[in-house]
């Protein structure tokens, strides 16, 4: 049986990390994003669902593989270490499903991937990779082929993969933060120009982080309704987010001008964005209140123990820094002399006071999820697998769905799921037992319970408390954006029901390739003027890659960048 041959076409994907569909539409309508406005007229567009949670690590891994986290194994920037209460940072080497570039290579096409999360260390391919935010530093081997690193450094002088702005955020140096965002964006644009012009590729995908960084730190300046709105600085910084979008819109116009009529251009984001509110949810306090978690000792009210703000400062600052700064040789001595205490020091700060022998469920309170203290999995697990485990999970999910804000009576969560309700695949066991989606509008942040001054479950922070948080003032939302134009794509069509999981199969089809049978994502048929004739083929799903952890210095570098975005303690 002969196989029909489709024409191969070039595909360029411009990722605007965290770009929000609502903002993009509003600014396109106002004439402020003329490229997106014209792509909307000439092509298809719509909001695009992210992963749960809508975090860059699982979202870009899903983009790369066309599969859900239950198959590629990336759920967050970190994961629990089996047999412990510790966590480890994850990276591209932990991704289990076959990547898009391998699917393209199998069919004779080359791919270039630049700055996509979960691509470190870069793997061999026919094409090139410049790895993304899971790269420890510019000293790392962040390109494949390795010689490409030297080319970029010779061209640019330096290449900053992901600037760490934690210190600047704490010092409220918004001028320096904005300079770092702009400088990093311009360097990335220069690198992309060079790679597009001087390297061979059939599919090219790049992720620009400027939109995400600007929205995390500058949302409060453009939104007068924001609880942290700063009128004094709004005049200087209120347009920063718009300017990031506009710079990328202008670069998209530059790319369009260089494409022929036989190529495709996609502009998309991995999740959306919105403002934080003054609402905070303390999951471990809630679990304790419901009797599912026990502490080693009941804490006194904050006013009797150093004061809430000082306590929070000590926990978030001194304690966390101490864990990172203690020399390894001191830790080794502590492990020999006081193994029980040493083990507790290795835990996330949220776990320090937990009495594991009386705890049935717990949360690390950075990942919006709950774990069962399961016998045989956790070191001191007390919940038996099987009927007891299942009954406890259902009990917690039911209660979570009923959790209300005592001030407003509104639900504190938009959804609560058993993990198998949203994930499936060989890597399901790496997922948290229960996955939560905090209320999005207004946005309820999950924060560590040890920073709660009065053992609250839900708290409305005062302006002073919000200011003392030093946390990003914009946060992720469930829906990003999608714009596409090229041969056969319907003009002016708004599409619904699409997700980032659909990107890999859609890109394969646009490039003229067959699509592996059994991917979770599907070719987005609704973007085409005529129903597409998608060709499928059988291919192995998973690829074995050497497992490797960051060394201590690498882990500290990556963790520092993630702490600046509020993802780690």
Task: Explain the overall architecture.
The protein is of the alpha/beta class and 569 residues long. It is 36% helix and 15% strand. The chain folds into two domains: 11-274 and 476-563, Alkaline Phosphatase, subunit A (3-Layer(aba) Sandwich), CATH 3.40.720.10; 279-460, no CATH class. Helix 1 crosses helix 2 (34-42), helix 8 (174-198) runs antiparallel to helix 9 (210-222) and helix 9 (210-222) packs across helix 10 (231-237). The longest helix has 25 residues, at 174-198. 47% of the residues are buried.
SSE layout and pairing:
Elements: E1 11-16, H1 21-29, H2 34-42, E2 44-49, H3 56-65, H4 69-72, E3 78-80, E4 87-89, H5 100-105, E5 111-114, E6 127-130, E7 143-144, H6 147-156, H7 166-170, H8 174-198, E8 203-208, H9 210-222, H10 231-237, H11 240-257, E9 264-268, E10 272-275, E11 279-281, H12 283-289, H13 308-325, H14 328-337, H15 339-345, E12 361-362, E13 369-372, H16 387-401, E14 413-418, H17 419-422, E15 434-438, E16 444-446, E17 458-460, H18 463-469, E18 474-477, E19 479-485, E20 493-494, E21 498-499, H19 503-510, E22 515-516, E23 536-537, H20 552-563
Parallel strand pairs: 1-8, 1-9, 2-20, 2-21, 5-6, 5-8, 11-16, 22-23
Antiparallel strand pairs: 2-19, 3-4, 6-7, 9-19, 10-18, 11-17, 12-13, 13-15, 14-15
Helix pairs in contact: 1-2, 8-9, 9-10, 9-11, 14-15
| Whole-angstrom Rg | 24 Å
C-alpha geometry: globular
Total of helices:
20
- Mean pLDDT, to the nearest integer, reads 89
Main β sheet profile: 10 strands, mixed
Number of strands: 23
Structural class: alpha/beta
CATH topology value of the largest domain: Alkaline Phosphatase, subunit A
Spans of at least 5 consecutive residues with low confidence: 299-320
Helix percentage: 25-40%
Oligomer: single chain
């Amino acid at each position: 049986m002969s196989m029909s041959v489709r024409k191969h076409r070039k595909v360029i994907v411009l990722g605007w990390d965290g770009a929000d569909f609502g903002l993009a539409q509003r600014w396109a309508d106002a004439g402020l994003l003329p490229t997106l406005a014209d792509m909307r007229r000439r092509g298809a567009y719509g909001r695009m669902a992210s992963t749960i949670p809508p975090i860059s690590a699982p979202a870009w891994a899903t983009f790369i593989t066309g599969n859900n986290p239950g198959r590629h194994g990336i759920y967050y920037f970190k994961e629990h270490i089996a047999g412990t209460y510790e966590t480890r940072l994850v990276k591209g080497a932990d991704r289990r499903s076959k990547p898009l570039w391998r699917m393209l290579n199998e069919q004779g096409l080359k791919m270039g991937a630049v700055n996509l999360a979960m691509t470190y260390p870069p793997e061999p391919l026919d094409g090139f990779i410049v790895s993304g935010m899971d790269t420890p530093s510019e000293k790392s081997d962040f390109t494949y082929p390795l010689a490409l690193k030297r080319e970029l450094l010779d061209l640019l002088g330096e290449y900053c993969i992901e600037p760490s702005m934690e210190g600047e955020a704490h010092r409220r140096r918004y001028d320096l933060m904005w300079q770092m965002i702009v400088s990093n964006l311009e360097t990335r644009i220069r690198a992309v120009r060079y790679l597009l012009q001087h390297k061979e590729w059939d599919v090219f995908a790049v992720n620009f982080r400027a939109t995400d960084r600007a929205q995390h730190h500058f949302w409060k300046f453009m939104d007068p309704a924001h609880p942290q709105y700063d009128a004094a600085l709004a005049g200087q910084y209120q347009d920063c987010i718009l300017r990031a979008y506009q710079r990328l819109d202008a670069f998209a116009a530059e790319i369009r001008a260089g494409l022929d009529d036989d190529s495709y251009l996609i502009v998309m984001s991995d999740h959306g964005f919105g403002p934080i509110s003054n609402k905070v949810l303390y999951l471990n306090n809630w679990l304790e209140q419901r009797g599912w978690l026990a502490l080693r000792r009941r804490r006194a009210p904050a006013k009797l123990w150093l004061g809430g703000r000082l306590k929070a400062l000590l926990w978030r600052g001194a304690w966390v820094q101490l864990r990172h700064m203690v020399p390894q040789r001191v830790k080794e001595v502590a492990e020999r002399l006081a193994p029980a205490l040493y083990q507790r020091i290795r835990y996330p700060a949220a776990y320090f006071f937990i009495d594991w022998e009386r705890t049935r469920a717990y949360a690390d309170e950075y990942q919006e999820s709950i774990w069962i203290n399961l016998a045989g999995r956790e070191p001191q697990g007390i919940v038996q697998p099987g009927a007891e485990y299942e009954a406890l999970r259902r009990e917690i999910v039911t209660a979570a769905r009923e959790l209300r804000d005592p001030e407003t009576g509104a639900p504190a969560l938009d959804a609560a799921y058993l993990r198998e309700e949203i994930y499936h695949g060989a890597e399901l066991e790496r997922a948290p037992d229960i996955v939560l989606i905090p209320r999005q509008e207004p946005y309820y942040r999950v924060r560590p319970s040890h920073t709660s001054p009065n053992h609250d479950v839900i708290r409305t922070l005062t302006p002073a408390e919000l200011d003392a948080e030093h946390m990003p003032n914009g946060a992720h939302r469930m829906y990003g954006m999608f714009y596409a134009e090229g041969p056969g794509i319907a003009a002016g069509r708004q599409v619904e029901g699409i997700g980032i999981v659909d990107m890999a199969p859609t890109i394969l089809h646009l490039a003229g390739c067959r699509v592996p049978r059994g991917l979770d994502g599907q070719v987005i048929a609704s973007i085409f003027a005529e129903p597409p004739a998608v060709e499928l083929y059988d291919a192995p799903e998973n690829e074995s890659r050497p497992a490797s952890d960051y060394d201590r210095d690498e882990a500290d570098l990556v963790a520092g960048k993630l702490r600046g975005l509020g993802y780690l303690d």
